[in-house]
Model the fold of this input.
Amino acid sequence: MPIPVWCLILGGALLLVALLLISKIKLSLIYENEFSVYLKFLFLKFKLYPEKEKKSYKKAKNKDKNASKPVKQEEKKAIKMTPNAIVKLVQAMKDIALDLISSFFGRLHIKFFKVRAEIGCEDAAKTAVAYGVVVQGVAYTLEFLDTISNVDKSRSSDVDIRSNFISQKSWVELNCMLYLRVFQLFPLGIKGLKAFFRFQSFKEKLLEVENNGTIETK
Done:
């Protein structure tokens, strides 16, 4: 008995959705004379930083026209809050932000982390001190990344830091790739919405009443 066409279409659609959900969203951090950030998804690649400057003649012309016109400043009503309320509000923002950051980094994977550097200063003593500081800083960075994120077993860490007592010049190259899978974004989005509504509710309580006690933010 032949398989119905609609079953094949449905199966193909489900397979496509499954492949999209397990696809990786990659973030590349590169430093070679300047810092660059790239976002990759499937066959698409976007440069996040530095942004290209868009020059538009029309925008410049409109700015010149608007410059001659008087700008009306809208009066904004300031919301008065007591110092005690402001402290509680900042504390709530900090708790919510730390919760979101820990959730994000808990799902983050590190594919590879590569550093190449050559340290050279005016004299041998300064070169030795600078070399020690750089090596120690890179070691602490790797330990920190291992602590806050999921590290792939296949992650390749290539750290090559050398001292040069002759050239008196220093250079560094960095290449790091992080990634998340698409399905991991859904719990982050839900948690972000919950955090937003929780913060708005907390803010409304502070504006309504003067509470001398402690308001729970979780």
